[in-house]
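quick one before i forget lol
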Amino acid sequence: MNPVTRKDDADYIVENVKEHTDYFRDSLAMIASENIISPMAREMMVSDFCDRYAEGLPGARYYQGNEFVDKVEVHATQLAKELFQVPYADTRPISGTVANLGVLFALTKPTDVITVPNVSDGAHISTARFGAVGVRGLEPVPYPFDVENMNIDVDGAIKVIKEVKPKLALFGMSVYLFPSPITEMIDALREVDAMVWYDAAHVLGLIAGKHFQDPFREGVDVMTGSTHKTLPGPQHGIILADPKTERMSEEKFLRKLNYGVFPGVLSNHHLHTMASLGISLAEHLEYGEEYAGQIIRNAQALGQAMHERGFNVLCEHLGFTESHTIAVDVKEHGGGTPLVEALESANIVTNKNLLPWDPTDAAMNPSGIRLGAQELTRIGMKESEMDAVAELFKRICIDKEDPDSVRPDVVELKSGFQDIHYCFGGGKAYKYHRIVE
């Protein structure tokens, strides 16, 4: 028997990446925090940019060899400013959470009070004491939540804001069904001299596509986001700002943001994903409004179709959603964990999710599932396909059909949707590229 070589180890990894690609080619990908980048954006990921360093700002680097990196970064930053209509953008953060940490390091100090949405109500873990907020040593105070309408309780939140006088007030969710009530709360926030921050990770592309709320025009000072959800770019982050706070001058505010990112939370900023983000921003300037509108129509159609088939889709009285996401209470059908496992066996990729009435220690066995329509939209599906998807869910979750018998129908449906839309040139979504033979 020939001994195992290190090349065998490498081949093992390559083979599993290939099988992963094949699996998603034949699957309905419905994780609300994922998407697929365009072929042009993907090409940037395997360019020489992936091997290089560029600490600092364009024109003031600590390394040489950054002439073309500087040109790309300046242009990508300008595209971000244009897309979001803001005077400041930073395309350096390497993820949404790193962008969040950059803001926290820039605008707060340990023991400061920050008001936040609660994780159990659908917020991201970075807002919690065990996440980025806790890493910075802040005191998070949650907003009261309106469970029926899946949004912040405005009257209760205003009362909390006036009582605790936060230095920074955060809006943003991971289960983001409806716009945050910033307009209704902005007077109270300004009254206590709070800076206002919006984590747009999930809805960044919807905001840019003019189909969600407009946080900066509603009074927000700074907005962060990851760039691979409804904005279909690489796994990267971004910070945008148009400060209105009277706590400090605009110049000081923006200078703090710069230093919060570097040297605050990163050194090199992953140049290949920054270049890929630039491509994605240009594509969203061209196609984003059309894409965002179709995402929301698809999500609403999916919610309606599942509701008609007996699922408890949250907020039926509000049309289920105004974003890419629907939330479904599946407790009566077995709960989130067993259902997402059954769906995965049938090539439907989703995630289990806490709902507001779940205990916080039920994260691994919650009542809900969260579904996103953004990737199905990216490959060309529309409202009629959402009806077909809902029927597949019913067969598995309600009818308890064997996932093995449903899988061929999933693969057949997906076979007609293999190309990427809303981008320059289009191309195959699930093509495997073998670079080294």
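fyi The two ends are 24 Å apart (CA to CA).
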